[in-house]
Amino acid sequence: MFNMSDLANLEARLDAVTLPLLMPLRASKTLDGVAMTELLQIGRDLVEVVSTLDLVPRTLVGKSWFLFTQMLSEADHTRTPEPILDAAWQWQGFLRRAFGKRS
Fold first, then answer.
1. What is the DSSP letter of 51?
2. Concatenated DSSP letters for 52-95?
3. Cα angle 20, 22, 25; round to 5
């Protein structure tokens, strides 16, 4: 069973990967492979943790979607958007599984 400290850990990991992921995207429209690998692992963990909870902190949801929207935004400003878009859609898949409809 997961608890609030698991959510805090996920949010801290998300915070830690945000700058290494977004700075190269904004500056040179490139993806940092190490940061992207960590983001995808966070996504896997997010799906696992969130699926067991009734409530998820807004800050975690907001930060998660912020990364997605920033990747899409940066892809709009490059001549070769495919790698960035692929990364964004991979991340979005985890978000959909974590935060999508629940029955």
1. T
2. T-S---HHHHHHHHHHHHHHHHHHTTSS--HHHHHHHHHHHHHH
3. 115
Does this model's pTM top 0.85? My answer is yes
Question: Which is it for the CA torsion 100, 97, 26, 83, positive or negative?
Answer: negative
| Sequence spans of domains, the chain | 4-99
- Name the one residue in this structure whose structure tokens are 């904004």: 26
CB contact set of 60 (below 8 Å; sequence gap of 6+): 7, 10, 11, 14
Task: Record the tokens describing residue 100, joined without a space.
Answer: 């999508």
SS3 32: coil
pLDDT beyond 90 at 100:
no
Whole-number Å distance between alpha carbons of 37 and 97: 18
**Contact between 94 and 68 (Cβ < 8 Å):** no
Q: What is the mean pLDDT of residues 68-74?
A: 97
Distance between CA atoms of residues 5 and 99, nearest Å: 19
